[in-house]
Amino acid sequence: MNAEFREMKENPSHCVKEAKEVWALEKEEASRVIKDFGSYTTLHGFHFILDSGSIIRKIIWITLISLGIAFLFIQFRDNCRKLQSREIVISKDLERNENLLFPAITICNQNMMRKSKIMGTDAQTFLDQQDTLKYQILGDSLHSKETDPAFNIEESVKNNSHDLSEMEKISENDEKLKFVIVAFRKRLALFSIYYQTLDTEVTEEKPAYDLNDFGSDLGGNMGLFLGCSVLTLCEFVDLIVIMCLRCWRKKIAVEITQDQRH
């Protein structure tokens, strides 16, 4: 085809009729390209518009494809708004530990000081006066006993608080397991282990709708309403490029014809 254009430029004697023939050939070639595109494109129903001889059937398929495009656009708009809203969700999961090493427990002692060290001292009187439950039982008699003015709560906590070295007993091997049990029995009246309470609760904050969800919804909607994918869009881009090149060739043919008329 480019050779025909060069021949027209070099030989001004070519008439308008030949330019019209070139125009007609390009038009037929464009129609053939579009028809071939309808036979291999993955857009469902598109080939019925080009191959079907019935006008009613063409109208039906044009309507169906138009409705599919409209629904796809509506879903795309809603998904874009959902993505731009940047909503956040907080999820909580329980991670269960199947294999636990004994003793895998935590004992929390809420007492500030050891009872055996402060019995009958000002520290015991001070703690009793802070206990609202005892006050409800004993009433004002709880405050009848006064503490020594020289009593210092900070010093008392330092001297009488719990010593980690005395509280912590770790079983390094099976031979010391009996000793650990004895140590627990000396310090606790009742010792129960509930493995189900040792589950880990994981709290996670994450976007309610991210780009991965948007891409998944877009691909699903394209397949649902039009039966196509992203590659189908590439097919249409390829067709548009081919048609633009043919329009450019037609424009050159018209310019050559106008030059011959002048």
Automatic annotation (TrEMBL):
**Transmembrane regions listed in the UniProt entry:** 59-76, 224-245
Which keywords fit this entry according to its UniProt record? Ion channel, Ion transport, Membrane, Sodium, Sodium channel, Sodium transport, Transmembrane, Transmembrane helix, Transport
Q: Which residues form a coiled coil?
A: none
Pfam families named in the record: ASC (PF00858)
Topology in the lipid bilayer: Multi-pass membrane protein
Subcellular location(s) per record: Membrane
List, alphabetically, the GO terms of the cellular component aspect: plasma membrane
Superkingdom of this protein's organism: Eukaryota
Query: InterPro entries given for it?
Result: ENaC
Molecular function (GO) terms for this protein are: ligand-gated sodium channel activity
> Which protein family is named in the record?
Belongs to the amiloride-sensitive sodium channel (TC 1.A.6) family.
Stated name of the protein: Acid-sensing ion channel 3
Q: Which species expresses this protein natively?
A: Acropora cervicornis
